[in-house]
Structure formats: structure tokens, C-alpha cells
Amino acid sequence: MSEIFGDFIEMGNSQEFLVISFSPGTQSFQDRWRGNSLSADFLADYWGTFFPIHKDSRAEVKDAVSYIANELLENAIKFSYKPSSYPMSICLYLSNDALRFYVKNSVNPETVGQFQHLIQRLLTEDLDELYLRQLEGNGFVGTDSGLGFLTILNDYDAHLAWKFETIQQTPEVITVTTMVRLPIVRA
User: Fold this and answer.
1) The model's pTM
2) How far is CA 175 from CA 71, 85, 109, 166, 185, in A?
3) Which distant-in-sequence residues (6+ apart) come within 8 Å of 120 by Cβ?
């Protein structure tokens, strides 16, 4: 079973892509968390070579890639459902007009509904108002703050979508793939 929220684009064919996978249980949560920014910075440095020669433009793209990758990896680490032993991965695909991030991890079957409710709010409510309410502490009650997603949407003009899949029935294992489409302009 699969459920999609937003304008999810399948990974498809691209000549330029990079995938990093993290095996469950090879590092503690704390070690994985500490290495998170290193992975995000590596991705930013790697993809920065594909973008405008102009130094300021390249730095802007690298900053965006680093921030978005870091936020997505933090969420994947924080919310991966440890009992499933499902690996996490981040894939970046380059197309003519966008860099697409795909982060896939397992989620706790008991909290999927809460997460989907947060997603519905991100997709249907006024983002500026939601961002302001979240900063004031009146945003998402009873769920994760969603501030990282809101920042990605507001500050980087990116588009988010999610795909939930039940990949195993007994015990139930559900994965979520978070897709971020970052528009790019090449010089």
C-alpha cells in the first residue's frame, strides 16, 4: 500500500545522482546525530560543483543543499522506527531545473497518523501564518514542531511531498520518503 501527499515525483531516470545509505545498528543514535552535518556538508560540496561558476551563486546553492540535507537527515534519524531495522537513505537527483532530495526511513506505525496530519497542515494552510505561529509557540500542538519543513518551504522556495509505503505486514513496517524539489538556475 502506498499513500502520497503533495506533488511527489518518483526518482526515475537521471544521469546525475548520489545515494548515501545508513545501516541500522552500526552506530549509536548520538554518533549518527554528530555525523549528520558532515553528510550534509559533503552533499553540498559535491553538488556545488554542478552549479554556477559565479562564487556567490555557488555558495548560495551549497548553503541551501547543506541546510535542506541536514534538516531531512535529522528528521530521518530522530523519527526512524528502530525496531524495524530498516536502513535510512538520502538520494539527490539532478535534473535540468531542480535538485531533488529523497530521504527514506521507517516510521512508527502508531505515529503515522500524527505525521500525516502535520503534512496536511503544511500542504493546505497559509505557510507564512503557520511559520509565525510556530515561532510564537502556537503552531503544531502535540506533534513535532515542523519548523524545519516550514523553513525549507519559506526560505528556499522548495516544494515538499511525501510517500508512505507499507513494506511489511507482520510485523508492520512503514516507510516514508520525503521529497524536496529545490529549483535551480544554472548560469
Assistant:
1) 0.89
2) 18, 11, 9, 6, 32
3) 5
